[in-house]
Design goal:
The protein is of the alpha/beta class. It is 16% helix and 22% strand. Strand 2, helix 2 and strand 3 form a beta-alpha-beta unit.
């Protein structure tokens, strides 16, 4: 089936693979998938108006390749360097005015060039598991940005957070943001982002009410991840009179005596994951009443055997 798909994509001109066996390309080429090596790739597509470039299993990528790619192919809409052997993005990437998608996921890129603020049509910026620790303030110019993924894991498996610049509340089209540290300044910006669908935050103690106020504004929110700064850190997220009615996935990590009452109102919720210490109330009593819950995950949450020995009344 994979071979059939590859032949079809080339026959229809949808995408072309470039590797040692397929290095000579002819005809109208718009999307290329570079596999194994980037040597002589640009020469083979010199007269093409490439729109999409993806790399797979490439061991080495010269600086000259990166520089020429962004210099000679101004119509590129997709640049996917995921798992690629790159350590930087050239300043010239800001000249790719038509760029919609940029991924340096799982690369050694440490700094984003300030010219990234010129990518006014960018919709997705994927920095997951890269070495970027801080976003430039120019990111606030990207008014069409919808998906901003800016986290990685440390050796212990915990999230490490990227510093977000002041003023990112100007990104009014943002729909997915993860993960950010929810201090007072960040929460003030989050209140402006009413189109959010997926949000992941690490909550500092004392900011629970402000976070609840932000979430209440996000009427389209479908997925919410809230972690305290440590598993014993208190999650104070009870003060939400009206949670987003579209919420389908909820992940909570921290210290909490009882589940918030607003969880009763989550009629569309299908997945809940809890990693909570300090619970003194039986979470099953609350969760079994949710009409559409399909997936329940409890991580070191129920410490009383009586919690799981009682009669379960889940609808599904």
């Amino acid at each position: 089936m994979h071979e059939i798909i590859l032949r079809k994509t080339e026959y229809l001109g949808f995408s072309h693979i470039v590797n040692k066996e397929h290095s000579n390309l002819f005809g109208k080429i718009r999307r290329i998938s570079i596999q194994g090596s980037v040597d002589n790739v640009l020469e083979s597509i010199n007269n093409s108006k490439i729109r999409s470039v993806s790399v797979f299993n490439v061991d080495r990528m010269r600086n000259s390749f990166m520089t020429r790619l962004v210099l000679d192919f101004k119509l590129i809409k997709v640049l996917d360097f995921e798992n690629g052997p790159i350590e930087y993005l050239p300043e010239g990437v800001g000249n790719l005015f038509h760029l919609h998608y940029l991924s340096v996921k799982n690369t050694k890129v440490k700094v984003l060039p300030k010219s990234i603020g010129k990518l006014l049509n960018l919709k997705t910026l994927n920095l997951k598991h890269s070495l970027v620790t801080e976003l430039p303030s120019e990111i606030n110019n990207l008014k069409k940005l919808r998906y901003l993924l800016v986290y990685r894991f440390d050796r212990s498996g915990n999230y490490e957070y990227v510093k977000i610049p002041k003023g990112f509340g100007l990104l009014l089209d943002l729909q997915k943001l993860g993960f950010v540290e929810a201090n007072f300044e960040v929460l003030r910006e989050l209140r402006k982002l009413r189109h959010m669908r997926k949000l992941g935050v690490r909550l500092k103690t004392g900011n629970g009410k402000d976070l609840c106020a932000c979430i209440a504004n996000m009427e389209k929110l479908e997925s919410l991840i809230v972690q305290s700064t440590s598993r014993d850190g208190v999650l104070d997220i009870e003060s939400m009179a009206s949670p987003p009615h579209c919420l389908q996935r909820l992940y909570l990590t921290g210290n909490m005596k009882k589940l918030p009452d607003w969880i009763f109102k989550l009629k569309c919720i299908i997945r809940i994951s809890l990693n909570l210490s300090g619970l003194t109330d039986d979470p099953i009593r609350v969760l079994q009443t949710l009409p559409n819950l399909l997936d329940l995950r409890l991580w070191d949450t129920c410490h009383d055997n009586n919690f799981i020995s009682k009669k379960i009344g889940f609808h599904n």
